[in-house]
Design a protein that fits this description.
Blueprint lengths: L3 H15 L4 H15 L13 H15 L8 H11 L4 H14 L2 H14 L5 H4 L3 E7 L2 E8 L7 H9 L33 E5 L2 E7 L9 E5 L9 H13 L3 E5 L15 E6 L9 E5 L5 E6 L5 E6 L2 H16 L17 E9 L5 E9 L27 H4 L2 E5 L1 H14 L5 H6 L7 H11 L5 H22 L7 H12 L4
Parallel strand pairs: 2-13
Antiparallel strand pairs: 1-2, 3-4, 4-5, 5-7, 6-7, 6-11, 8-9, 9-10, 10-12, 11-12
Helix pairs in contact: 1-2, 1-3, 5-6, 9-10, 12-15
The structure holds zinc ion.
């Protein structure tokens, strides 16, 4: 095993090559590392080495063996080490601006993204272990990822957190500005390697950073500098359009501002963007409507209810979108079960801004409703309970656009289900008592029936994957407020005509 001093030199060499750390900062970081590991100088030649296996893992072992940290602090400590060799937040902003000025904004985001990956802020090695595939449905492809890193969140927990007081907490939430450089705790991630750049959206101070979870290419987040709750209104549309004006190679969308149909954090206003790779972007319009000069208004041929607006003129797009929102917020249609208000407002929108190939501003407005009733305690436009074994969380922006992020537990549960389906007989009583399998009784019973006794492994796996594929398509269809029926189509059409654009 390399000595700790050798690890330090190899880390500094890595930082010079991959994090663009300048000579002055290298000398400075070396002394910080000596202090951290309580070692004195001993001259070592640096080598090119694997960051995780040859540098960080031995450093962590050294720290544990020498009483510097407890094993439970390993991940926090690793981030601390990387924070010492990552260019400072201020330097990162200057460098980003220099590249944007000398080259272009795309090259500047490439720099910021590379820094996020190479500093281990994005743990690409873990993300590559996620299981991904595509499935084809009646309205185009849908992406599915079993995400091994992100914890599963119950919609009721999201609501509880929204109502929880942030008083006295530091940082107030995982999205707050003061996470920059925060050392973290066992319940809050360390953020010494977080880097972001300030941006101005609709005249307000926001900042842009990458998501450590990378659900899709260059998955980034725009966050308000202030800890204020999510709110879908005309200002939100204006901010999204401002963003894509500055970053035309990215889309930017917002989760809806109500529980069940929103994302996992409602307490801090933020948007999600990145490369325009999500399946919804590839779908054409199935119907166009008469609209003001130079503005296209139509319905996307997609699983849920999407109003698409595009024009070269940003203000005309904004104006149309504001009308759609206002109309939708007050829209009820008892015949098809849409009620905009009972004890609270239910209608909201998941908006997504982008620039299309004709260099037009686009807003896709996914119409949402979060009402619940006795038959649908989790939401009328939400997966029903028989689908919660696959996905229980709120169906946010990313899923609504056709990329499913499924909980990591499914990886081992699929293997357990394969074992059950390939066995000679199935003990349903035993399954019912199993914490990991009892929720999958529905799939197991159906597939056992379809496959027959003692299916082979490959057939069992394929059948389970096919079941998941169909469920994801069904979940998307659940989120449609105007269903894909004659009745739903007529109502959607009437809604569009009532906009008086
Ligand atoms: Zn916050």
């Amino acid at each position: 095993m390399a000595t700790i001093n050798k690890c330090i030199e190899n880390l500094l060499f890595y930082a010079k090559e991959n994090l663009f750390l300048c000579p002055e900062d290298i000398t400075y970081a070396r002394n910080q590392l000596y202090e951290l590991f309580k070692v004195s100088h001993s001259y070592e030649f640096a080598d090119k080495a694997d960051l995780q296996d040859d540098i960080l893992n031995p450093m962590i072992e050294y720290a544990i063996n020498n009483g510097i940290i407890e094993r439970s602090q390993a991940l926090l400590f690793e981030t601390k080490i990387m924070g010492l060799v990552t260019p400072s937040p201020g330097l990162t902003v200057s460098e980003f601006n220099r590249i944007a000025e000398e080259y272009n904004i795309q090259k500047a985001t490439e720099y910021l993204y590379k820094l996020a990956v190479n500093s281990n802020y994005i743990k690409m090695r873990d993300i590559k272990k996620n299981i991904r595939w595509l499935t084809k449905g009646p309205r185009g492809e849908v992406g599915i990822t079993i995400n091994l890193a992100k914890p599963e969140k119950d919609p009721k927990q999201v609501l509880a957190e929204k109502e929880q007081s942030d008083q006295g907490k530091y940082p107030k939430c995982a999205l707050c500005l003061e996470n920059l450089g925060y050392s973290g705790s066992l319940t809050h991630p360390a953020r010494q390697t977080l880097r972001y750049i300030p941006i101005t959206l609709n005249g307000e101070d926001w900042h842009l950073q990458y998501s450590p979870f990378v659900y899709y290419d260059e998955h980034c987040i725009a966050l308000s500098d202030k800890h204020v709750p999510m709110k879908i209104d005309e200002n939100a549309f204006a901010r999204l359009l401002d963003f894509v004006s500055c970053f035309p190679h990215y889309f930017m969308g917002s989760n809806a501002d109500l529980p069940i149909v929103g994302g996992s954090i409602l307490s801090h206003d933020h948007y999600q963007g990145g490369k325009k790779v999500l399946p919804m972007f590839f779908r054409p319009l199935k119907k166009k409507y008469r609209s003001p000069d130079g503005v296209t208004v139509g319905i996307r041929d997609w699983y849920n209810s999407v109003v698409h607006i595009s024009s070269k003129n940003k203000f005309k797009v904004l104006d149309c979108a504001a009308k759609v929102l206002k109309k939708w917020q007050g829209y009820s249609n008892e015949k098809i079960g849409i009620l905009c208000y009972t004890d609270a407002p239910h209608n909201t929108i998941t908006p997504i801004a982008s620039i299309n190939n004709y260099r037009e501003y686009c807003l896709d407005l996914i119409l949402r409703n979060n009402r619940t009733d006795d038959k649908h305690p989790y939401g009328i436009y939400h997966p029903t309970e028989d689908m919660h074994n696959i996905k229980k969380e709120g169906i946010g922006l990313i899923e609504a656009m056709g990329l499913f992020i499924l909980p990591g537990r499914l990886k081992s549960e699929i293997n357990e289900m394969i074992n059950v389906l390939t066995a000679d007989s199935i003990d349903f009583k035993k399954l019912n008592d199993s914490p990991s399998l009892s929720k999958h009784m529905g799939i197991i019973a159906q597939l056992a029936n379809d496959l027959g006794k003692g299916a082979d492994k490959k057939a069992a796996r394929n059948a389970i994957i096919e079941y998941i594929n169909k469920t994801c398509i069904k979940i998307l269809e659940c989120t449609a407020v105007f269903k894909d029926t004659k009745e739903g189509e007529t109502a959607f059409d009437a809604f569009m005509n009532s906009l008086n654009l």
